[in-house]
């Protein structure tokens, strides 16, 4: 079934088609390959998927993934045939979305909420116009679909996915470090609980979330001391510190000099980089 959305190679998500089928007993498809990503979502029945990584058992409540260019065979048994729906898609963000959900050719079977997924694919199937609002609505539906998949599969052991959580958390923290931010807000933004995100960041960077937050604030304060004539108290408040004295003590502990001394060096060393922000 055709679905209209932005088919440009540069589009973040391109929805090519959706469908639904009650398979007959002994249904089999392949060996075959496709030039786009394909997800099936199983409502009932059981069967298998075979790809280059092996053969995988699939039953109700599971989904299975087929990658572009991958030769696969899949089918159902004689006595317990599948009912499933599917979506074929591509786009520049497709690989990242799959990675966030822990889905890959090596790990093609995943959990799904069939009822919720079917509602989304039904909506997509009904969007046939090419107007910008319909295109954006279709893209939104795909992101909602992957939000559901991530919520059900985010605990998979997937270091690439974990690394993405860490980078998203640090990027978000860097942008809003100067506000009264709580660690719970950062965890909520990336979709993890506070303890799990803390462990991921500590394991992958060797620093705690609080240490990263302080460093981002010190880095910004250093830029303002070098590049502006704002008073030190103004810089402290601009960088998320509610107490200028506390800021000064913390700045000295991190750089080896007070904010005033650091600023004085700016005048003495015009054009010389006197402080390089730490890597996150």
The CA-CA distance between the termini, in Å, is 47 Å
H/I helix tally? 10
What percent of residues adopt helix (DSSP H or I)? Answer: 40-55%
The portion of residues forming beta strands comes to 15-25%
Q: What order do the helices and strands follow? A: EEEEEEEEHEHHHHHHHHH
Strand order of the largest sheet: 1-8-3-6-9
Rg is 25 Å
Low-confidence segments: 1-7, 156-160, 271-280
Largest sheet: 5 strands, antiparallel
* Structural shape: elongated
Mean pLDDT: 81
Characterize the quaternary organization of these chains. Answer: single chain
Summarize the structure.
By secondary structure, the protein is α+β, with helices and mostly antiparallel strands.
Question: Would you kindly provide a written description of the structure presented here, covering whatever features stand out?
Answer:
The chain is an alpha+beta fold and 280 residues long. Helices cover 45% and strands 20% of the residues. It has helices at 94-100, 114-125, 132-153, 159-176, 183-190, 194-205, 209-227, 232-238, 244-255, 259-268, and strands at 14-22, 28-32, 37-44, 46-51, 54-59, 62-66, 72-76, 83-90, 109-111. The strands form two sheets. A five-stranded antiparallel β-sheet has the order 1-8-3-6-9, covered by helices on one side. The protein has a four-stranded antiparallel β-sheet with strand order 2-7-4-5, with no helix packed on it. A hairpin with a 2-residue loop joins strand 4 (46-51) and strand 5 (54-59). Helix 4 (159-176) packs across helix 5 and helix 4 crosses helix 6. It starts with 13 loop residues before the first strand and ends in a 12-residue tail after the last helix.
């Amino acid at each position: 079934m055709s679905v209209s959305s932005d088919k440009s190679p540069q589009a973040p998500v391109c929805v090519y088609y959706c469908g639904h089928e009650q398979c007959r007993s002994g249904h089999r498809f392949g060996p075959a390959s496709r030039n786009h990503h394909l997800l099936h979502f199983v409502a009932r029945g059981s069967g298998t998927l075979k790809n280059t990584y092996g053969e995988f058992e699939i039953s109700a409540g599971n989904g299975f993934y087929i990658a572009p260019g991958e030769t696969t065979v899949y089918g159902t048994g004689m006595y317990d045939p599948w009912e499933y729906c599917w979506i074929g898609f591509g786009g520049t963000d497709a690989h990242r979305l799959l990675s966030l959900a822990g889905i890959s050719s090596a790990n093609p079977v995943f959990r799904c909420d069939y009822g919720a997924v079917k509602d989304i694919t039904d909506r997509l199937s009904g969007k046939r116009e090419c107007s910008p609002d319909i295109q954006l609505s279709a893209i939104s539906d795909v992101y909602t679909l992957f939000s559901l998949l991530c919520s059900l599969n985010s605990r998979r052991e997937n270091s690439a996915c974990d690394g993405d959580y860490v980078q998203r958390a640090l990027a978000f923290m860097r942008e809003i470090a100067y506000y009264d931010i709580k660690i719970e807000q950062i965890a909520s933004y990336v979709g993890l609980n506070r303890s799990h995100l803390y462990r991921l960041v500590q394991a992958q960077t060797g620093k705690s979330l609080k240490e990263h937050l302080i460093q981002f604030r010190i880095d910004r304060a250093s830029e303002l001391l070098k590049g502006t004539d704002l008073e030190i108290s103004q810089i402290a408040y601009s960088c998320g510190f509610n107490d200028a004295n506390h800021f000064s003590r913390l700045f000295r502990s991190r750089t080896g000099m007070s904010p005033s001394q650091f600023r004085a060096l700016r005048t003495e060393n015009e054009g010389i980089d006197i402080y390089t922000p730490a890597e996150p």
